[in-house]
Amino acid sequence: MEGMSEREYSAHSGLSRGAIEKARKAGRLVVYSDGSINAAASDVRRAEMTDPDQQRRSTGRSGGDSGSSGPADSSSYLKARTALTVYQAQEKQLAIQKRKGTLVDRARAEALVFRLARQERNTWVTWPSRVAALMAAEVAAAVETRSGVPVMIDAAIMQRVLETHVRAQLEALADLRVSLG
């Protein structure tokens, strides 16, 4: 026999016989062709492949005891594990919010706001040409009613005046920015 038996490796590593069997099945042990265990290579492979927290529990050691993994190794592992757990919880929370409709895609929201602003702007830019003649007639009628003198207001002049004021207002509104976070 080239290496150790499971019983010998169990005594060598401080693990139970069942833990050794599980490690063998999981491929965490290096086994010779005759079925015996290469202890040195298996120790290295187990250290690389096994969770430090699992190693402490399987050997019965607590975090304060000195073991195969130092306190810095296990604390960094626990921090990483905690960070992963927090990340997964946040990811699930975001998925729930998205399904409920309380969370929307930022790019989609920005595109929608831009499209709505563009539609509003286009409506205002074309508004003077649609109402200039009507406004000119209404103003002329109101002046004529008050003064008794027939007045004629050119619709083209009214349109230019309205366009000037509408464009000034749109330029003032152009400085507004939507902040989505």
Order of helices and strands: HHHHHHH
**Residue share in helices?**
over 70%
| Average pLDDT over all residues | 86
Structural class: mainly alpha
Distance between the termini: 68 Å
Stretches where pLDDT is under 50 for at least 5 consecutive residues are none
How many extended strands? 0
Tally of helical segments: 7
Largest sheet: none
Shape: rod-shaped
Tell me the β content: under 5%
User: What is the C-alpha radius of gyration, as a whole number of Å?
Assistant: 40 Å
Main attributes of the structure:
single chain; 181 residues; mainly alpha; 7 helices; 0% strand
Please provide a written account of the structure.
- The protein is mainly α.
- It has seven helices and no strands.
- Helix 1 packs across helix 2 and helix 6 packs antiparallel against helix 7 (155-174).
- The mean pLDDT is 86.
